[in-house]
Amino acid sequence: MNPRSACLACLERDPVALLEAALWIAAEHDDSVVPARVMAEVQALQQDVSAGLPMLPLSELAQPLLRRLNALGFQQDEYHPLRPQAALLDKVMQRRRGQPLALALLSLELARGLSIPLEGVNFPGHFLLRVPGADHLLDPCGGRRLYPADCRELLGRQFGPQLALSADHLLTASPLQMLQRLSRNLRQLHASHDDHLGALKDAERVLQLGPGTAADYMARATLYQHLECPQAERFDLEHALLLSDDPIQRLRLTERLSHLPPASQSVH
């Protein structure tokens, strides 16, 4: 079974093997990655984390778990420009540095193993966590509590004051959504370091894991442009045009399509 198939198979399990799926994504980029070996390291980490947790009800242990992870050195990767290793889970385990989503995936695995209730929240720009039913969110990078005012401030710092906080920003993330977001992060990171083939793997996975947006098809079209694959580029630009409801974006897509060679005709 190849890494992509193994990743998808993890999503068919009950419960979903989310962290292992993320490790198979890493294995797709580096064939020296052995997910079972990294999962054994996570098991050892779980014991270290558990030993440092206070004697509290399970429903109150999510924040102590995140603080314990932080004390063990797991922190947000602040390197600029950010590199793909910030989102590749095997590298996050080695370096103890990662993007918020990567740290959240590790935290969710540890919480599951320790029966601590915790779920992912698809907050834009900075993935967050939540104890089901709690009146606050948790930052996976250290465990800080975020109430609505904090969420508005975080949103404003990343997108400006014009974007108002809405209920859609606080929705629970499914395993598929988390892996799709991880794949988008990796697509961006690989592309920003001119690894177009690596980014193409991520772009394909994004569209395999769930419905793609116009931006997803445009991102893959740009990769095909770099790789000089005009017919594949045309296919994705046409899909983006169908999905886009932005008049300016549609105009730009139409113009870009006009500069591509015509679609090859089938011979009958």
Automatic annotation (TrEMBL):
This is Protein SirB1 N-terminal domain-containing protein. Signal peptide: none annotated. InterPro entries: SirB1_N (IPR032698). Belongs to the UPF0162 family. It comes from the Bacteria. It comes from Pseudomonas vranovensis. Residues 38-183 form the Protein SirB1 N-terminal domain.
